[in-house]
Amino acid sequence: MAGASIEQKEMNIEDNEVLIDPSSLPTTSAKDTTTTTAAAAEDENGVKKPNYKPLTTKEMNKGRREFRRIRIPPHRFTPLSENWLKIYTPIVENLKLQIRFNPKQKTSEETTDMGSIQKAADFIKAFSLGFDVDDALAILRLDDLYIETFEIKDVKTLQGDHLARAIGRIAGHNGKTKFTIENASKTRVVLADTKIHILGSFQNIRVARDAIVSLILGSPPGKVYANLRNVASRMKERF
C-alpha cells in the first residue's frame, strides 16, 4: 500500500517543478538501538555512568520520507536546462541527494546531513529567482547565507514613469549602481521587474537593502555611494 501511495504522489507532480524527495531510509532495529547505549563507564568515584553514542542521521530521521518541491518560473526553464550539470553535480556529489527535473529529488543512503535537503532547495530557489549558478552555489558552502525579497511598492507606491525611474536609479548606467552596491555590501542583487532579491549574510543584506531603499526614495546615487564607502570601511575595520 505504501508503494501505491508513493506512485500516486509521483503522478500528481507538475512538469514545472523541481522536487527533492528523500528515499526511504531503513528503520533502526532493536539491535541497532542497543548499540547507541554503549556500556557504562566509571568516573573518578567509581560511579557507573551511561556512555551514549551520538545518533546517526538514519536513526534521527527514523525512516521518514522528506522532499522539497521548488516551482520554476517559465522564463527560467532555458537557463535551468543550460546549467543543469552545474546544479546537479554539487547536489548529488556534495550533499548526497538525488534530484531530477520534472521529478523528485531524493536523499540516498549516503546522505550524511539532515539539513542537506533544505540547502539544496535554497540553492535551486536562488537560481530560479535569477541568481547566477556560481553565486547560488555559495548557499551550499556557507551556512549563514539567506535570500531576502521585497517589492518597490513595499517602500513607496510608485507608478508609470516614477516607477521606471526608481528601477533605473537602482540599476544605474550599464548596471554600475547595482554592481557598486553588490561589491560594497558583499551581496548579490537581482532586479526582476518591481521585485528585488538580495543574496548574502544577514548583516550584508541590511546594508544593501538600506542603499536600495534610499535610491527608491529618491536619493542621488552619489550620496548612496558615499554612504556605502563609509559602511564598507567600517566593515573592514571590524574584521
Keywords:
239 residues, 13 helices, three-stranded antiparallel sheet, disordered N terminus, Ribosomal Protein S8, Chain: A, domain 1, KH_PNO1_2nd, 2 domains, KH_dom_type_1_sf, KH_dom, alpha+beta, RNA-binding, globular
Structure at a glance:
The chain is an alpha+beta fold and 239 residues long. The protein has 13 helices and 10 strands.
Strand order of the largest sheet: 4-1-6
Strand content: 15-25%
Categorize the overall geometry: globular
- Topology as a string of helices (H) and strands (E): HEHEEHEHHEEEHHHEHHHEEHH
- CATH fold label of the largest domain: Ribosomal Protein S8, Chain: A, domain 1
Number of domains: 2
Q: From the helix content, strand content and strand pairing, which structural class follows?
A: alpha+beta
* CATH H-level homologous superfamily name of the largest domain: K Homology domain, type 1
For this structure, what is the CATH class of the largest domain?
Alpha Beta
Mean pLDDT across residues:
76
Radius of gyration: 24 Å
What is the number of helices?
13
* Parts with pLDDT < 50 across at least 5 consecutive residues: 1-11, 24-39
**Number of E-state strands:** 10
Examine the secondary-structure arrangement and name the CATH architecture of the largest domain: 2-Layer Sandwich
User: Distance N terminus to C terminus?
Assistant: 57 Å
Task: Please give the share of residues in helix.
Answer: 40-55%
Largest sheet: 3 strands, antiparallel
GO cellular component, one term: nucleolus
Protein name: Pre-rRNA-processing protein PNO1
Keywords: Nucleus, RNA-binding
Domain K Homology: 144-217
